[in-house]
Design a protein that fits this description.
The protein is an alpha+beta fold. Strands 14-26-25-24-15-22-23 form a 7-stranded mixed beta sheet, sandwiched between helices. The longest helix is centred in the C-terminal third of the chain and has 37 residues. The N terminus is likely disordered. The structure holds adenosine-5'-diphosphate and magnesium ion.
């Protein structure tokens, strides 16, 4: 049920994905979900569009075999999916075979139905065929001969599907089609065999409905294949072989045999086979297929290259770092496949309706039959109306409305470097009202550099830098990196430390490995807090606006390091776009007030708070959420984890190859706040499509069923409308493929 909880891995359970067969409509999906959830300790979400179920289960209480057995008892097939690539290939082959069979049977059905329908043409032009008795153009025995194979050979799928569903205690679209067409066929057959010449026959209706529903299934299958095109496109990016350098000579080996540490070459115009680090050569590489950024990236020694990206002009010799499922590309594919199989909360209503849809329609049909017969005293017309009700009702459109839009939206995102973890995140991102942004690494480059080192009281600048570098060895903070780089440039080697402790949002503390002297480093507020006096007048006006890190030893200040982090040139544009989209932007930073003010001014943010600890950021998020504001948080994840976890939607930008470990709801591969704006706009577009689709699907059934009951739609038209309805829902979702990122 709760796809979000499963995707977030919240319950301490195991998860598997099941591939499902035999589903014909959303009612089947609802049915399977119900039987799976009845197994003890199981939480399942079935996706009709991808024909998969994501199942969280407790291995102590149930096993995968039990899950498969439960699905089988309900009349459907299930297999555990383990190897996404192999499963996808198998699925594709199976679907292609199914499609071919479907097409063949459709053609036969159409050929048999055509003469039956052709005789109706004069009647359409002269006032409809529920009217006065007419003379058949074709002899009735011939009509019976044409309609029978359509009903029982082509239509056997509906009987089989209906039987499975009913035996499992549920009802699906097949039940409606089988029931509706059987009624029309059986009535006509009896009339023909008993030679009741004053009665109509409706062979053309039963045959045409089956043919049209078939046509609808064909078109739907084709369109559904289009919804996973983005994912398949990603899978095709990687070349099949890599040119390895082994013992000084070149050999071409299949990708599966490449191991980390292998040297490989990428020639101009070729795609990078696996993730790696450039060792020799320079080139420009097109990474747009992963990042969405159209500008090609220069690569030289020690640059990172990603599988699937396109080497444009130079020759690169690289060392493999990520192979197989360890590449960024594989991570993206995994994430997208998972997102596409997840369920949006907005779908819940449609699911509930699908679950009871068929029985309700059958009841409406029976009531229609009884009422029409009683009111008009005409059994034949009553029958025609009831058949129309059964065949116009379409639970498929309800079931397809949300998942197809989610598939196209998340797939389109993946093509532009926007990875949305699941449909629930997509829905929340689409409804986002306030976005909290972290300063470092979000608005700024996240690559601070040391601009000044100030020593006091007899310490030298080298002493300050050496102490700082020693303390920062154990930290992953961007400021730590900057300090280590600066020390390295000065040829300073850090000394050993003990008792290292990192204090998020404040700094770090440790002891000198040699004499156990306590040492601390961090914001001036932090040093004051740990009892280090800050000499007056040390913070000169020249330093205002820089990030300041104090270094202390033995309770005394050694000196001060000033760092600056350039504001990203694209941040101001992104803030402007967010405001234009009606989203409040609030900056929260652990840095000092002057730096915060300078950055806020540079990017056009009006609301900000400085000196905020990680826990304070989380509190701010919670406070906004408790006011009912849908709140997002963008951060680097290093010490913003509590706030990211508290937010309705968390965004991580510039994830690069860390995507596998990234736990955010939306991961942006590009290091640019504009990618967050694009993610929000894409989510909005997808949500709009979902709403349109749901509205259409509900409206279609709500209007169609009464019209059919009133006898205003002939069964043939009803069959055509039902076929068209699900096709149009999928087609509407496919329009999302045209979505483009804004900047
Ligand atoms: P931001 O909100 O900009 O990401 P942080 O919460 O990461 O800032 O850090 C806030 C402040 O704490 C920094 O400006 C710095 O003064 C200090 N600080 C925290 N961790 C470290 C560290 N490892 N090295 C140096 N300073 C640190
Ligand atoms: Mg930070």
């Amino acid at each position: 049920m709760d796809a979000t909880a499963i995707a977030r891995g919240a319950p301490p359970k195991e998860r598997i994905e099941l591939g499902l067969t035999g589903m014909t409509c959303a009612a089947c999906a609802a049915r399977i979900e119900k039987v799976l959830n009845r197994v003890p300790g199981v939480q399942a979400a079935v996706n009709f569009a991808t024909e998969t179920a994501v199942v969280g289960f407790d291995p102590a209480r149930s096993a995968p075999e039990q899950l498969i057995a439960a699905v089988a008892r309900a009349g459907y097939g299930a297999t555990v999916r383990e190897d996404p690539e192999l499963d996808r290939k198998r699925d594709k082959a199976r679907k292609a075979a199914e499609f071919a069979a479907l097409k063949r049977e459709f053609i036969i059905a159409a050929l048999l139905t055509a003469p039956l329908l052709a005789q109706m043409v004069p009647m359409f032009t002269s006032g409809g065929f529920t009217g006065a008795a007419h003379a058949d153009l074709l002899p009735r025995w011939l009509q019976l001969a044409l309609a029978t194979p359509v009903q029982f050979w082509v239509g056997r799928r509906f009987y089989v599907g209906a039987w499975h569903a009913l035996r499992g205690g549920g009802a699906n679209m097949d039940v409606l089609v089988a029931l509706g067409t059987s009624m029309a066929y059986a009535f006509s057959a009896v009339v023909t065999l008993l030679e009741l010449h004053d009665q109509h026959v409706y062979f053309e209706a039963s045959a045409a409905i089956i043919t049209l529903v078939f046509l609808g299934k064909l078109l739907e299958a084709r369109a559904k294949a289009g919804t996973s095109a983005a994912l398949e496109g990603l899978l095709r990016l990687q070349p099949k072989t890599a040119h390895l350098l082994r013992d000084g000579t070149g050999v071409d080996v299949p990708l599966g045999e490449v191991v980390a540490g292998d040297r490989f070459v990428v020639r101009a115009g070729e795609s990078v086979p696996v993730d790696g680090i450039v060792r020799e050569g320079t080139s420009t590489v097109d990474e747009s297929m992963l990042t969405g950024e159209s500008r090609a990236v220069d690569k030289a020694a020690s640059a990172v290259v990603y599988a699937g990206t396109l080497n444009q002009d130079g020759l690169l010799t690289c060392e493999a770092t990520g192979v197989g499922s360890g590449t960024l590309l594989a991570g993206i594919v995994r994430l997208v496949a998972e997102a596409q199989g997840s369920k949006a909360p907005i779908q819940r209503l449609a699911d509930r309706v699908s679950g009871i849809f068929v029985p309700v329609v059958v009841v409406i049909a029976v009531v229609t039959l009884a009422l029409t017969w009683w009111l008009l005293g005409d059994a034949t017309r009553a029958l025609v109306h009831a058949v129309a009700v059964l065949v116009i009702a379409c639970p498929c459109a309800l079931g397809l409305a949300t998942p197809t839009a989610v598939m196209v939206g998340t797939g389109r995102g993946a093509q532009t470097g926007i990875l949305i973890r699941n449909a629930a995140a997509l829905e929340l991102a689409g409804r986002l009202q306030t976005l909290i942004v972290d300063k470092t690494g979000t608005l700024t480059e996240g690559r601070p550099a040391v601009t000044e080192v100030i020593a006091i009281d007899g310490a030298t600048r080298d002493d300050v830098l050496r102490a700082a570098a020693s303390l920062e060895q154990g930290s992953t903070h961007p400021l730590a990196k900057a300090v280590l780089v600066a020390a390295g440039e000065q040829g300073i080697t850090p000394f050993a430390i003990t008792d290292f402790a990192s204090v998020p949002g404040k700094g770090v503390a440790a002891r000198d490995g040699a004499d156990s002297a306590p040492m601390a480093l961090g914001s001036l507020a932090y040093l004051t807090e740990v009892g280090v006096p800050i000499p007056d007048a040390m913070v000169t006006s020249k330093l205002r606006g820089s990030t300041l890190v104090g270094v202390a030893r033995g309770g005394r200040m050694l000196g001060l390091i000033a760092l600056a982090d350039a504001v990203r040139p694209t941040s101001a544009e992104a803030v402007r776009r967010l405001n234009a989209a009606g989203i409040e932007v609030v900056m929260l930073t652990g840095d000092n007030a002057e730096t915060a003010q300078a950055v806020a001014d540079a990017v056009g943010i009006r609301e900000f708070r400085s000196g905020v600890l990680p826990a304070g950021k989380a509190e701010a998020v919670v406070a906004l959420k408790s006011k009912g504001v849908v709140t997002g948080m963008v951060g680097d994840g290093i010490n913003d984890a509590p706030a990211l976890a508290a937010a309705d939607v968390s965004f991580a930008i510039g994830a690069g190859s860390d995507i596998a470990v990234e736990a955010s709801d939306v991961t942006l591969i590009r290091s640019d706040l504009n990618a967050v704006v694009d993610a929000i706009l894409l989510s909005r577009a997808t949500l709009a499509k979902i709403r349109q689709n749901l509205f259409f699907a509900f409206a279609y059934n709500v209007l169609g069923i009464p019209l059919a009951a009133a006898g205003l739609l002939s069964p043939v038209i009803a069959g055509a409308a039902m076929a068209a309805s699900s096709v149009s829902v999928v087609g509407n979702a496919l329009l999302l493929r045209r979505w483009r990122p804004g900047a």
